[in-house]
Structure prediction request, 224 residues.
Amino acid sequence: MNATLMVPGGLSGLDGNAVSQLVDGLVEQGWFAGERFIDTTLCRSLHDELQRLSANQALSEAGIGRGDQHRLRRDIRGDAIHWLDRESQAQRHYLALMAELQQQINRALYLGLFEFEAHFAEYPPGAFYKRHVDSFQGRANRVISTVLYLNPDWPDDGGGEMAVYAEDDETREVARVRPEAGTFMCFLSDRIPHAVLPTRYPRASIAGWFRRNASLGGRIDPAR
Ligand code: OGA
Ligand code: MN
Prediction:
């Protein structure tokens, strides 16, 4: 499956076929993973940008919890992040693809997705993110989580897979996704337990969340 197509203007768009598979995956099992979902050239530009940010010390250690609850917990997650800020053409291209995806998902599933927030993430060797869900039922303004992987030629012994667990039994692993450039993963934020297994090489990705309008969602997350 090659999910990105060239469109007039030279930028790649999303392939309708791949998007239908994504929607089916969300409906049938609550998650989707697709290889070569995002164009290789775009992934390379995003990877270069993340490596530049890292070299310039423009990444911050990620924590858990929002607002006052925010804590650094190396025993839970070990990545360093940089929120997307539309600084580069590559970021703007990726955000345009996600806007297109948001529209397609809304059209198919009436989820009322309203905005998208995302950060680059770099996991240094040895880092991991323990099993968790991305939002809690009832205060779910994060509705769908996404991850785009950026490392070309991820080695077989690289570790760093995303482990996906059963919705009704978080101890049962149902899939392992290799963090290879172009692979795109998405899942229902409040339902699907997942983890990043310890990586042996610097692991590069963009994690993002489609959110519901906070005024419709009932509760509002405090500012991050
Ligand atoms: C996250 C997360 C998974 C991944 O950032 O919340 O679960 O594969 N990331 O990077
Ligand atoms: Mn997560």
